[in-house]
Design brief:
single chain; 339 residues; two-stranded antiparallel ribbon; 7 helices; 78% helix; cell projection; coiled coil
């Protein structure tokens, strides 16, 4: 009844939902939108911060790689030129130009030269001993040079390993920090999801309770209405006409009027059907009469046709007999001629 009265009131029907309810709904939507915008801004700021950290780490890596490359290039330019290599003399294009006659007394050849010329006499014991001492000293110098070179290479490798370990530690610390930040962000996201899920459940429960209340109210309204109780066949409104929403069934007078109308229609149909049957019988008798007349006319036509044919046959016989007699007279006259 309250719903019907609200529908009958133009002001309430056209006005719709109260503005306070709409304002509360708009405020709730605005708060949800602001929360979503704040969450998006937080995630965007976190992403920018992570991007900056990663860019800084990558820049440090690139700078260290560039420093190593520059150090390698500087070392190569300073110590690895082709003129400084020990085997450069084997492929020196200007070696023949600078070559001079060997001198056995020249100390630059060293004890390993094994220079011996035909004009050189047999060396004395003192010279042989001195040559052996020089050879031993040269070999010791080469061994010491090799050991120094190996020590320098080991020191360089140790320094490279220490720098690589330092870079690995820095990278591990950065990765651990990034993983921890991602874990914290994921935990915060999980907590926010749990909170949103709880809010959604509460809203769903509230909506369910509201729907149940409206449903129960509707059930009570319908069960207690006069339309369900069938207290009136057709309730008459203020205008004197039956109300469409309260119309249940016909009254006894209207139902009897319908029965009377149906009976009159049935009687009219029976009378019409009987009249049609009489008209069909009359048409059938007329058809039989017409068929009999047409049959008699057809028989008379056939009889007259046969009679005409018989007269025609008799006339033909008569004409044939006359022609036969005429032919016989002509033959008699023909044979009777005597020249």
């Amino acid at each position: 009844m309250a719903r019907r009265m609200r529908l009958l009131d133009p002001r309430q029907r056209v006005g719709g939902i109260p503005h306070q309810v709409l304002a509360e709904q708009l405020e709730g939507k605005r708060q949800v939108a602001e929360a979503e915008e704040a969450e998006d801004a937080f995630y965007a700021q976190s992403a920018v911060l992570q991007d900056q950290i990663l860019q800084t780490v990558e820049g440090m890596k690139a700078l260290r790689a560039r420093d190593r490359q520059m150090a390698v290039v500087d070392y190569s330019l300073a110590n690895l030129r082709k003129e400084q290599r020990r085997e450069y003399a084997l492929s020196d294009p200007d070696a023949l130009k600078r070559e001079t006659l060997p001198d056995p007394d020249d100390p630059s050849f060293g004890p390993s030269s094994m220079l011996k010329f035909p004009s050189h006499g047999k060396a004395s014991a003192e010279a042989k001993r001195q040559s052996q001492e020089d050879q031993a000293a040269w070999l010791e110098f080469q061994v010491q040079e090799k050991l120094d070179r190996q020590a320098q290479e080991k020191a360089f490798d140790r320094l490279h390993d220490e720098r690589a370990m330092l870079a690995s530690q820095v990278r591990a610390v950065c990765e651990d920090n990034e993983i921890q930040e991602q874990r914290d962000a994921k935990c915060e996201e999980a907590e926010e999801n749990l909170r949103l899920a709880q809010v959604a459940r509460e809203l769903k429960e509230a909506k369910k309770l509201e729907d149940n209340a409206l449903k129960q109210k509707h059930i009570d309204t319908v069960m207690n209405s006069e339309w369900i109780g069938e207290m009136h066949d057709a309730k008459i409104g203020l205008t004197g006409k039956p109300m469409k929403a309260e119309y249940k069934r016909l009254t006894l007078e209207e139902e009897q009027e319908i029965y009377n109308s149906n009976a009159r229609q049935l009687m009219d149909k029976r009378a019409k059907k009987k009249q049609e049957m009489l008209e069909k019988a009359e048409d059938a008798s007329k058809i039989h009469c017409n068929v009999a007349v047409l049959g008699a006319l057809e028989e008379e036509r056939v009889r007259q046709q046969q009679e005409r044919r018989m007269r025609l046959v008799e006339e033909n016989k008569r004409m044939a007999l006359a022609k036969k007699e005429a032919d016989r007279g002509e033959r008699v006259e023909y044979f009777k001629y005597d020249p």
